[in-house]
UniProtKB/TrEMBL annotation:
Keywords: Ribonucleoprotein, Ribosomal protein
Keyword Cell membrane appears in the UniProt entry: no
Pfam families: Ribosomal_L9_N (PF01281)
Keyword Cell membrane in annotation: no
PANTHER family the UniProt entry points to: 50S RIBOSOMAL PROTEIN L9 (PTHR21368)
InterPro entries associated with the record: Ribosomal_bL9, Ribosomal_bL9/RNase_H1_N, Ribosomal_bL9_N, Ribosomal_bL9_N_sf
Listed name of the protein: Large ribosomal subunit protein bL9m
GO cellular component, one term: ribonucleoprotein complex
Amino acid sequence: MNICRISRSSTFKLCKKEITSQPLIFYRNTWIVKRKYTPPLSRLSAERPRVLKGKHFIYETIENTDDTPPPDLHLVLTTFVEGIGDVGDIISVMPEYARNDLLLPRKAVYATPENIEKYSIKKKSREERPKFSSIHAATIIRSLSKIVIPVFMNSENPWTITKSHLHIAFRKEGFFIPHDAIELPSSSVEGPDLAMEGRDFAVTVTINNTEKVPVRCRVFYIKKGMETAILSEEDYLEKNEPILAEQKELLQSMPMPEIVDDPSSSVSLIEKYRIKYIE
């Protein structure tokens, strides 16, 4: 019989090591495996089952639930959520975003038959109108209110800015604005006037015949040999003098563009979080 004696100093070291070590974090996990070598079957008349060899305890991994992404959750929206949907809409969404941004703030509930019936009735019977004309209206308003639309004009021939000029300018910046949704300022903007280059004026854009948002436009002249030149960030980030004096207060109150370092912030929520709509 072997007896091991631990001194007081070694006991202290063991206790100290146990106290200062990092705590273990336990979580539930599942491994699905199969035997690499099929074990032999025992005879029905055998008194004891056959003893398995070491190779019969070698397993191959079929699936590890840590490597399998969790399935999307089905939710019912309980209120209007910008960029996603309105009350009563049934959506499928990534579980992390669903729990942190929809379930915890009580903007959505699980899509059980009871909740689907409850909020579909609420959507039909509510008296107040939605906050916006569509789920993307607020996002479009925020984008248009911070953008600077460059309007390129001729530096030699006389011109007056029309809706067609602005329609083309918006289209070059990635916005398709129909002519009837553009409202020109009360005073006309005419040129050419070299002192007008780099100065601002505002137009009003109507979204879905409901929301109106003022948009900052900036005049630039097309110079010979520089038709394909690209404007620098300094041409967009600072407030310039207004072309029309009556728009000075409006232009001063409008925000300016911001430099965005994270490219994912420009991606819609529907694409970013795999949101799908369920009928």
